[in-house]
Fold each of these.
Amino acid sequence: MLTVVTNANIFTPLGTKAKHGTEMGSLHHIPNGQVEIEDGIIRYAGPVRDHEPADRLIDAGGNAVLPGFVDSHTHLVFGGYRPDEFMWRMRGDTYMSIMERGGGIANTMRATRETNEDELFHKALEYLHAMHDMGVTTVEAKSGYGMDRDTELKQLRVIGRLASEGPINVVSTYLGAHAVPPDYKGREDEYIDFMITEMLDEAKPLAEFCDVFCEKGVFSIEQSRHLLQAAKEKGYKLKLHADEIVNTGGAELAAELGAVSADHLLHISDAGIEALANSDTIATLLPITAFALREEYAPARKLIDSGCAVALASDFNPGSCFSYSIPLMIALACIHMRMSVEETITALTLNGAAALGAAEEIGSIEPGKVGNLVILDTDNINMLPYHTGINLVKQVIN
Ligand code: NIG
Ligand code: FE
């Protein structure tokens, strides 16, 4: 099966590793380009050339062609919604105060425990189709709204089914350490031990990553280290929700453990920035969460200028960020976090792929990579933030 995309204005980062620092801003540009995809794998990306008859010939008409977007941080599978909590926050309540009153993650936990597997699947599947329409070809999805054994495994099975039946590639993460479940209040260490002794082995066939909400009032640095070290020994790749609400040194812990990514980082310290800059850990920023929580944005400029590899992701979840809007994310990254368009594209493609340990397979348009492409409705990538919040994706190839 041969797919040829011709008359393409190609913009792509190149390589099989994350781009750090200023490298993020330079994209490879092929103005009169062509991409040839054979059996799902790119065999050629370069100037327009003659080719044998294609099974699928797509004339991009000079429009911009980018690698498929990678949304490397979502909480895609959940029961219920929390619109009332959103309005409480708009009136001045904090995310943590709602959580302390038994709402927040515990609210979605109750709804997710009560929702059957099929319903969870169909709800998440609709979101996946909507993400695909905005150019996302790979998404990460976390458990973490069950916290008991059965519901965590139920969520992970749903993620597995989405991966095999859904429209895009799905990567699975076990996030049992998303909150302290109500029956373990005051016994956080016991919950960590429960996950280590009873959950990690069972979840392993269903999850590639292990993640933890490392935060004041949730899981401490010591508890996070204990869990993640055990997960690493069992073959998980690691992620952390780090320095989101206050600084706890989560970024430093991510670098110390060789985590694939440290996510959020609104309150990362200078020492944390230095630790990430000197590591292979990706700094994954989630601007729509900061926007929806009315918080300061993560210091993207400082991270990039210090030599970190920055990825952008949605954090789609029913609480802090009920949005997976790629156009909004790009606009916030450019307007409020002062990233260039080129940097946002790298952050959403090659660096997003690296945040999933998958930069050898996806994230750029070059021979050997999976044929995941986005064709825009414009030849000009500056339109992405300028046409603020508008979806400019015309066609997705995956
Ligand atoms: O990444 N901070 C922790 N977890 C999610 C929020 C989940 C929720 O509120 O349901 C986040 O923002
Ligand atoms: Fe999250």
Amino acid sequence: MLRLTAGAAAGAALPMAGLTGCSSDSSTETATPLDPAEPDPSITPIPLPIPEMLVGSVINLEMRPGQRELIRDKMTPTKGYNGDYLGPTLFLRSGTDVSLNVTNNIGVSTTTHWHGMHVPALMDGGPHQRIEPGDVWTPSFPVLNRAATYWYHPHPHAGLGQGVIFDPMSTGYQVYEGLAGMIIVEDGTSDALPLPRTYGEDDIPLILQDRRFHDDGALLHFPTDFDPTRDPALRKGGHFLVNGVEAPFLEVGAQVVRLRILNASNARIYNLGFSDDRTFFQVASDGGFLRAPVPLSRLLLSPAERAEILVDFGSDQGTTLKLRSFNRNLGTSLVPFPLQDAWDTADFDLLDITVGPARSNAVLTIPAGLTTIDPIPEAEAVNLASARPFELAANPFGINGKRMDMNVIDDRIRLGDTEVWEITNPTTQAHPFHVHGDSFQVLTRNGFTPPENELGWKDVVLVRPFETVRIVKRFHDYADSVNPYMFHCHILEHEDVGMMGQFVVEDGAP
Ligand code: C2O
Ligand code: CU
Ligand code: CU
């Protein structure tokens, strides 16, 4: 399998490879993006698998090794929750209590984080809530989130500097092997909306991931001649998996269909749309419904972001179309030349969609409105005059000039406060910035109001090259002066090498 080990580059003190240097294409893979007009005939479509749904107040998850045919005719050694690859979709009801038993049978230290969930720091599953091999972690919490699509994944921090990205105990490594799953929260708001809600039928989870493989089918984390001082230290590939299958097909009815899209890729940004360029409607962002469906023909989705969209197939019976990523025209707007692979600037297909007859109980219209979102007033922030700064810099690599240190609390926040955070990106590469603890709202991008589909609840915001993004966040409900929450870039290799920091929410005067 992977020849590079934790020791291979440990101690290398160079700045994050590729961010400043140039690179050559050293991938052992021969890969040319498909011309979207000419699907690869060697790939026979197989049906989109729908992850099993887990409901109830007690949820058991076992992290374990397995193997799976991710690409046709090759078996890939993988890891998964309760299975070979990915994990079940957890259905949580807002206002109820949930307890989880997470068993680590993957043989290395790990954690499991409830991404986007508003939970106490000790239950968050960040790098400090380690689960040693053979152990069971038993968090429990009341579900306080709004109805939306969240997810779970390992979040260990190996802390070996540059070498950490090769470590089997790193987040990027473990997620790449398959450890991730979706969480769907429902509440009174979602109950009342006339939206498609039959899981797997008209309410479809789509977990997007890109992978590279060795010839024998094993996952290729990095090419064997990978040199972190020269090559982009990112796990990206030209095999695109949806729910763990390359180029699957989905049969839908001639009706309105809801797609819950999760970008669970380590580093890939998708610019989603359909092969016929149709308009679709975004109804939810990371942490809740939008005010009203937002018509779009392209949807940019960076690592860890979620979007729920409605697609009206009502007059499409008998047709086929594709969910496609239109990356051809992105140029260097998000990923600069030395870090690009072929698919950062090519269009590629993710999913074939075939439209059959409408099912019974079909939803046939797109609702005009969804919910009310009360904007968090900027004036509510205790630090409006001097927003808390987060600079995502490449040299030195990290946030505010520091790399993640498990023993350092970077920020202390007072329970009950509302704060404005100002995230700046002086690099030529876009960074998806994520904050644990609870959703936030985006105030401005470079001083301007963000687009309509970013005016809801978010927990990841893509900060483009040379951009400044201001967010506003409430720190409510949970205080713990010892156990921190994380903030970090959700490009997992960036997080692993230290583009991450920690904050605590404290009760009482700071
Ligand atoms: Cu998706 Cu800190 O995580
Ligand atoms: Cu998170
Ligand atoms: Cu980053």
